[in-house]
Amino acid sequence: MLQGIRDTVEAGEFATTSEAMRDAVRVWQRQRLEDAERLNAMRARIRRSLDDPRPSLTEDEAEADMDRFMKGQEKASRNAAR
User: Fold this and answer.
1) Residue 79 class from Cβ within 10 Å (0-12 exposed, 13-18 middle, 19+ buried)?
2) Closest CA to 22 of 10, 14, 11
3) Looking at the domain assignment, is residue 3 inside a domain?
4) 70 lies in some domain
5) Could you tell me the residue range of the domain that residue 36 belongs to?
6) Helix (H) or strand (E) holding 29
7) How many domains is the chain built from?
8) Which domain of life is it from (predicted)?
9) Which residues contact 23 (CB under 8 A, 6 or more apart)?
10) pTM for this one?
11) pLDDT at 62
12) CA-to-CA distance for 8 and 15, rounded, in angstroms?
């Protein structure tokens, strides 16, 4: 990894190794923050779903809904191809 950073500095993308390292750490920190935000959003959606008082679909109802959805997707795809 260090060689990759040195190559980047030698190529002129960064003035110093320290500058390249600071940039890499900033990217890493930003990615960690974005990952945490995504995870929190997923947890919130799961919590809302678990707390939803509406009755769940039966397996047959879910299958029928999925079939209708897929048929709609196929129809939209055919119309878009025209």
Assistant:
1) exposed
2) 14
3) yes
4) no
5) 1-57
6) helix 17-51
7) 1
8) Bacteria
9) 14
10) 0.56
11) 92
12) 9
